[in-house]
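Example record

One chain of 210 residues, shown exactly as stored in the release files.
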Amino acid sequence: MSPTAAEIAAFHEEDPPAGADPFVVRRPVSPIVIAEPDPNWPLVAEGVMATVRGALGPRCLRIEHVGSTAVLGLPAKPLIDLDLIVARPDRETDYLPTLTAAGFTLSVREPWWQEHRMFIHDTPAVNLHVFGPAAPEPWKHVILRDHLRTDAADRRRYAEAKRTAAAAATAAGERVMDYNARKESVLREILHRALTASGCATDDPSGSFA
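Predicted structure tokens for this chain:
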């Protein structure tokens, strides 16, 4: 049920169907703060992952700490990103009530994109992404995380891109999605190198993304 290497290497977003809104709950616009690396982030993530595992039991097929807070030495928004794999993301009764009882709030529902759901948690600040076993996106997250953990040059380059994008987005009063767009070109270059090193992509960036 795992995705193929080609599916992992493909890079594309699915637009919502006409009239569909992925947001169940919208966070208010706030300044985008890039914090200096905090060695406690992995410890916080471990605590939250333990809570999720305890709540879901065997329905938690896998959970990973991903994103910039999972990379020691990398500045980041002080927000823990976790990827949770469940057997059937479309069967929300398997996990939504349990996660809600554990303090998470369903914020995003976009079944047209890899059956993705996202829950938020305020203290500590967490984005909990839910995918199924065949989704390519969580594989990208792990490959990028592990690449940035070992490649100091790309880690420095990504840190600079993040700080520059955050300053520009905050000055313009933009949302997180605009901040992400400002650093996307640098992120894609780094991700392509990570995917190539993993064997999922070719050496030609133009041929690696759909």
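Notes: Helices lie at 5-9, 41-56, 96-101, 137-150, 152-171, 176-182, 184-198.
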